[in-house]
Amino acid sequence: MATLPPQTILSDTASLRSEDAAPEALAEALIALHGQAAGLALLARLAPERVEIGGELGAVIARATPQQRALVAQTAADCAAMLESGLAALATLTRRGQDTTAPALALWREFHAARVAMVSVLSPARPA
Question: Can you give the residue ranges of every domain in the chain?
Answer without folding.
Answer: 21-44+54-122
